[in-house]
């Protein structure tokens, strides 16, 4: 079986590629290297003992995308990760996000729908905004997005749903990720933020290793048990496994609807202060932090109802928050050695 993985050298794409290769699936990795390093290819090979095909292609280039499908006429599926993902940057440069995330998706959908190649799409819990009720199910109403990034995920979902309706031989799964954290147990691949990390866990590990003086806990008077925001943090290896189950389901004849949506989370919420405590327990390290002002645009609490994915795909998160945080710390130490 041959699967196209766009954004295959990125954070989540690289972990999924490792699992696919370990299962004996042939992968073609596509990346424009905008926000990924070519060294990841070496690291994937080191972990799996297999060198995947790699094409440096920008999905905004329609003719290069079409050429890809001519080079690999035997693709049986596509997992589409390639997208920009920084919320703040998307507010400053909206057109960059619309051109890249929407343009790239439309360009790849043309050959996929024409050839009936099924697609797994990286969506996000960001589409729910601040949900009125928790936990969040797939039926929870979507809220107007607060950033161009979030809007590209909502639009992306709609574009794919419309494409499924218009092309009876085209099927898709939309995975709404909650907060992915952690790294591969080998500490050979992980999240590699460019510049100052915007997300909690890379900022925390960079603080503990001494690259940043202090972690700011954004907001401590929220309406939550300890006053800090609550999220559903999922180990990237669990998230990667959810893609494997989705692919099996998509390629089997079991899928009832041509476009299925699944939440991918643990079903458990943790506050920022709880996460800090769990990190300290898992690693024995002290986190220097201070309570500071809330960050504009943050939702108070979000965690997933995972009943649907458990029932339909038989997938359930296996790793604890401590295991995820320990792997993030091992990875941070590994990057420190390399840099
Ligand atoms: C988590 C919590 C912060 C940094 C992101 C994306 C979103 C979706 C999920 C992909 C919040 C707090 C953070 C810091 C802190 N992903 N925090 N100090 O905001 O839930 O969402 O991941 O699509 O689109 O934006 O994740 O890691 O930024 O924040 O206190 O230095 O940590 O306030 O409560 P978020 P995050």
Can you offer a commentary on this structure?
The chain has a domain at 2-179 and 234-265: Rossmann fold. The mean pLDDT is 97. It is of the alpha/beta class and 339 residues long. The strands form 4 sheets. The protein has a 7-stranded parallel sheet, with helices on both faces. Strands 7-10 form a two-stranded parallel sheet. α1 (11-22) crosses α8 (236-251). The chain has helices at residues 11-22, 39-48, 62-71, 87-92, 94-115, 148-166, 200-209, 236-251, 272-283, 307-313, 321-338; strands spanning 2-6, 26-31, 53-56, 77-80, 119-124, 172-177, 179-181, 215-218, 230-231, 233-235, 259-264, 270-271, 289-292. It is built from 11 helices and 13 strands. β5, α6 and β6 form a beta-alpha-beta unit. Helix content is 42%, strand content 16%. Bound molecules: UDP-4-deoxy-4-formamido-beta-L-arabinopyranose. UDP-4-deoxy-4-formamido-beta-L-arabinopyranose binds at residues 85, 87, 124-126, 179, 198-200, 203, 215-218, 229, 231, 272, 295, 298.
Sketch the topology as an H/E string, one letter per element.
Answer: EHEHEHEHHEHEEHEEEHEEHEHH
The CATH architecture of the domain at 2-179 and 234-265 = 3-Layer(aba) Sandwich
Quote the CATH topology of the domain at 2-179 and 234-265: Rossmann fold
CATH superfamily of the domain at 2-179 and 234-265: NAD(P)-binding Rossmann-like Domain
Radius of gyration, whole Å: 19 Å
The tally of strands reads 13
CATH class of the domain at 2-179 and 234-265: Alpha Beta
Overall average residue pLDDT: 97
Q: Summarize the amount of helix as a percent range.
A: 40-55%
Shape: globular
| Strands ordered across the widest β-sheet | 3-2-1-4-5-6-11
| N-end to C-end Cα span | 37 Å
